[in-house]
Write a structure and sequence with these properties.
Layout (H helix, E strand, L loop, with lengths): L16 E8 L5 H11 L4 E5 H4 L6 H19 L5 E5 L2 H4 L8 H23 L2 E7 L7 H4 L4 E5 L4 H11 L12 H7 L4 H16 L10 H22 L10
């Protein structure tokens, strides 16, 4: 197996190091798979969204990142089976480095380069299991690519898989759920599991707010929120096609 990390088998920090990259569209199960892997290994999971580490004050972001790994090293030293470290939303820090110079852009790029350097150094000396997630594998910096043990792609679900996801998330406890045509929903809307879960929650909340005799979830409820989700998805994709980062600003 990978680095002898087997279910229920203790491993020491001196002999175990595994760096994984999960990449794919939002909502395809990257975070869920990380939790399942941690459970399979009999470990807790420590989750940090890299975007939350960024700080408005120069120098603070770097301190936050160093502090994160320093605390994790203490866990490794003190625990027989340290937790899995999950770094979510690593897009900006794994991307190829910008060469923009001059003015505010240069100072911002310098900060990102420093953050990337810190992350690279920590990966080099890392002991334990670390999972990084990103939505943008196309811009992966080669310096990170060669330090990652395994890259796993999470693809968007097929129509058949979408039908299964609708059935999985549609609890039979929801009034009207048993009459929903999930095959029609799966064929009509190209959605991820995360999106389907959100749509069902929103639609069920809307149905529950109606008069008592009308408090049943319907196909139209789900179709309405699915349409809104697809429209929102297209808007997000259009924004992502624009130049990334502060370099786009004049």
């Amino acid at each position: 197996g990978l680095y002898d990390l087997q279910e229920g088998e203790p491993t020491t920090a001196a002999t175990s190091k595994l760096i994984l990259l999960f990449h794919g569209a939002p909502g395809t199960g990257k975070t869920l798979a990380s939790r399942v892997l941690a459970s399979h290994l009999g470990r807790e999971i420590v989750t940090t969204d890299i975007s939350k580490i960024l700080d408005a004050f120069v120098g603070e972001s770097e301190k936050h990142l160093k502090r994160l790994f320093s605390r994790y090293r203490r866990c490794v030293e003190q625990l027989e089976r340290p937790p899995v470290l999950l770094l979510n939303e690593c897009d900006q820090f794994l991307s190829s480095r910008s060469t923009t110079t001059g003015g505010r852009n240069e100072s911002v790029n310098r900060m990102y380069h420093q953050m990337q350097n810190i992350l690279l150094e920590e990966i080099e000396s890392f002991k334990g299991v670390m999972i990084m997630t990103t939505n943008l594998i196309e811009t992966l910096d080669p310096a990170f690519s060669r330090r990652i043990d395994l890259k796993l792609e999470f693809k968007r679900p097929t129509e058949r898989e979408r039908a299964q996801l609708w059935r999985l998330h549609l609890s039979p406890k929801i009034p009207g759920a048993e009459a929903i045509d999930v095959d029609r929903l799966a064929a009509s809307f190209d959605l991820t599991g995360g999106q389907i879960n959100v749509i069902i929650r929103n639609a069920a909340t809307a149905a529950a707010s109606r008069k008592e005799e009308e408090r049943r979830l319907t196909y139209d409820d789900l179709a309405t929120y699915a349409t809104l989700e697809v429209q929102s998805q297209f808007e997000t994709e259009r924004r992502q096609k624009r130049p990334l980062g502060f370099g786009a600003a004049a």
